[in-house]
Amino acid sequence: MSDTAEIKASPMETHSALPPEETERLTREIIAGLKTVFDPEIPADIYELGLIYKVEIKDDRSVDVQMTLTTPNCPAAGELPTMVENAVASVPGVGVVDVKVVWEPPWSPERMSDEARLVLNMW
User: Where does the record place the region Disordered (predicted)?
Assistant: First the structure.
């Protein structure tokens, strides 16, 4: 069974036989967890910055995350993926979490939400 969970152009995906209400709960709580992770140099969370490219919830409740950084030379490159892994893993019912940093497509400010633009005064 293949089901896609979307919340406002969300990068969330699920290829899972989990009940829809459980998929929705996991989706909401994973997004909430991701919104607790901030780039130490930018006062906006990584989800609103558009650094999360894909989150896939699978049958066994494992979660794969594809994320990027604002730049390959980001000083937080060593810690942000671990922070993302911990935030997602803290959601009740989530199994193993695998975070991969990807560089394609490259991040650009256009990926930011209106909320992030407001916080960063980038209108």
Answer: 1-23
Q: At 50, which CATH number?
A: 3.30.300.130
Per residue in 38-52, pLDDT tens?
988 888 999 999 999
Amino acid at 11: P
- The pTM for the full model equals 0.84
Q: What are phi and psi of 58, to 5 degrees?
A: -105, 170
The answer to whether the peptide bond before residue 109 is cis (omega within 30 degrees of 0) is no
Mean pLDDT rounded to a whole number for the chain = 87
The answer to whether the CB of 88 falls within 8 A of the CB of 63 is yes
Q: 41: how many CB neighbours lie within 10 A of its CB?
A: 9
Which residues, in sequence order, are CB contacts of 8 under 8 Å at separation 6+? none
Structural domain that includes position 52: 20-114
Q: 12 lies in a domain? A: no
Q: Are strands 12-15 and 97-101 parallel, antiparallel or unpaired?
A: unpaired
